[in-house]
Amino acid sequence: MGTTSPTDAHGRTPAPDEADAGFEDESPVTDTTLDAIVVGAGLAGLVAAHELSLAGKKVLILDQENRANLGGQAFWSLGGLFLVDSPEQRRLGVHDSLDLARQDWATSAGFDRDEDHWPRQWARAYLEFAAGDKRRYLRDLGLRLTPIIGWAERGGSGASEHGNSVPRFHLAWGTGPEVVRVFREPVERAEAKGLVTMAFRHRVDELVLESEADSDRDGEDDRVVGVRGRVLAPSHTGRGIESNRDEVDDFELRAPAVIVTSGGVGHNFELMRKFWPIERLGEFPQTMLAGVPAHVDGRMLSIAEDAGASLINRDRIWAYTEGIENWNPVWPNHGIRIIPGPSSLWFDAEGNRFPAPNYPGFDTNRTMRTILDTGHDYSWFVLNESIIRKEFALSGSEQNPDITKKDWRLTLDRVRSSDAPGPVEAFKRYGPDFVVADTTDDLVQGMNERSRGPVIDHDHLVAQIVERDRQMDHSFSKDAQVQAIHNARNYLGDKIVRVQKPHKILDPAHGPLIAVRLSLLSRKTLGGLETNLDAQVIGEGGTPIPGLFAAGEVTGFGGGGMHGYNALEGTFLGGCIFSGMRAGRAVAGRSEAVGDEGTDMDRAEH
């Protein structure tokens, strides 16, 4: 049915058993007294439904997948949450502030388009949420955080360029499934009370429009009054597994408000290729792994566009550079992202070391462009056993069973262990991208056996490693990556759990040697439906479409792209939560008035 048990002989670590529950056939929807229809049962949809149910509103949630997929892509996530000036930061000696976060966000987003008006407003509001009510909002729902904060997207190229100046990646205790749970459970309680109805295997194909007179305007406007679509045949597949698209019936459902929370485009490579920014990132890769299940198809974008919705920033796509093929896949072309520490050496497909600041975990888009500029679509990490033990984390709830299952003993054992985490060891053993060797000759031979074209010259590769190793005899160095390693270890969190003590990669005491072939990995969509701060979808004329709202990744996590060109990480789940919250409250009539004046985000950019 789904993934196997935690005792899988090969070390596979599945998500909790609750993910695969609930394959019952769905009954026809008969309630005609709905206050809202939510299209998509991912995190943003659950948050919106939660807020609506708190207000006593009756909500229908539609999704093309079965109940086992409740929570969507958020369930598979590592559960990172972007917070500013949190108690967890202060306990680790991290001095953060809203002003510093605004500066980092503005320099990373690089807003430079007329259509960035609402994304700017969403960025401002989200940062205030991250520095204010976000932690309390989630804590009141029962979410807890781990004490160590990750330092993602470090930038490394100057205070006025992309990157987090300080660690802000707060990890949910329980990872993605726990983030989903704290919203899923109250929604299920509302379902038991009759406030929420969930209709799975219901694929929306059209937004229903009706003309209405608008007393404030000349003429009539189209209002969204419901949805039409097809009921799909029952599917008994587990979470994330590709399901059938057999049509068995049609439906039309009406409500005063429709909230689109259908997610991004991460498994629709045709759509990604269409909008891929060649001039900014390089040619679209011939080989790309899928970081999301097959149902993440972006269908609702064109459906909303057909209803008059404005789509913006569709070329702002967030793909990762450190993808590895999942040796035990759940969905087609399944890739996993390595979340690396800063010590691995990064080489292109021909064996040339990348220049600064293209180091592991520093600047995703800049490194993406550097990789694709070589004319190849993959690269290599070269490291050793000591580095992989401490610095390799795999993104995803199923790859971190200790934290996902909230087992402090296992978590502490992993931190104290001299071995790599079990899921990492499984990839070393079974993953097709990994080369483990005792000698440089065997290492390079293994790399060339996995090449998708170029042949790496042994002497050239080794010479570059030796040059770097000679910089390790002192606590200072002219090598910028070595400097970055020393800087990272000045942060207590990195020193404890994420960054290995500096040493020579070719030192036999730290062996064996390891090389990892890295492919590009699809993941998030940073553009989409343009929305105002009440999550109303903006029409082509620049005014809201009555009755139509949207939240989550389908809106670029808010406004049509609140991240701009780059993400600071830990901001995707938070974007779904924040936009889903605002959409639910707006439809419920509990939204706050928002001004349209200049913002701190605008000022930070100047």
UniProtKB/TrEMBL annotation:
The lineage of its organism: Bacteria, Bacillati, Actinomycetota, Actinomycetes, Micrococcales. Residues 35-573 form the FAD-dependent oxidoreductase 2 FAD-binding domain. GO terms for molecular function: steroid dehydrogenase activity, acting on the CH-CH group of donors. This is FAD-dependent oxidoreductase 2 FAD-binding domain-containing protein. Residues 1-27 are annotated as: Disordered. The keyword Transcription regulation does not apply. Residues 17-27 have a biased composition (Acidic residues). It comes from Brevibacterium marinum. Pfam families: FAD_binding_2. Keywords: Flavoprotein, Oxidoreductase.
